[in-house]
Automatic annotation (TrEMBL):
Keywords: Membrane, Transmembrane, Transmembrane helix. It comes from the Eukaryota. It is a multi-pass membrane protein. Belongs to the tetraspanin (TM4SF) family. It is found in: Membrane. This is Tetraspanin. It holds the Pfam family Tetraspanin. The chain crosses the membrane at residues 6-23, 35-58, 70-91.
Amino acid sequence: MCQLLWVEGMVVAMGGVYLLMKYRHYSLFFSQTYILLPAIFTLCSAAFLVLTGFLGTWLSLRDSRCLQGLFVYLLVVIFFLESTASALALVHSRKLDSETAPLSKVFQNYTGSSQDINSRAVDATQQELHCCGVSNYTDWLDTSWFNQTGGKLVPRSCCNATFHSCTGSVEQPWQLYPQ
């Protein structure tokens, strides 16, 4: 069981690191630090899981009822930490979706003109963050600008810099930034 706790701790830690990487880009748009809260809880839970696994392994060599009771208590604490982290991740992912909705409106008003300050902001953001759209390039498929291009192109700011011949064609999505 203790080795299972180690494995579970490593899996939860990978989930926490994934959350940190995902929220890292969103933190540029939001000043609140609550976005990182689920990731921090997840990483704390992972560390607690691994430590409890080591404690359980050490306790298996001992014959102390008091220490074994402590081990069961730590398992209950882990359960509550994991439940809290899961609930926070769910609540904050919904909150994040509702707060990124205004970004979609900026993309809807994109004109592609270098004279339009909003269009320049979209292009600069996509180039800086190495992204395309709010979620991915498919966000552009519902915009009026995409329809004006004949339904074939996304902005060139979506092009991955490693592909010098990229034109923004949705027929070659591998040349676009994936997120």
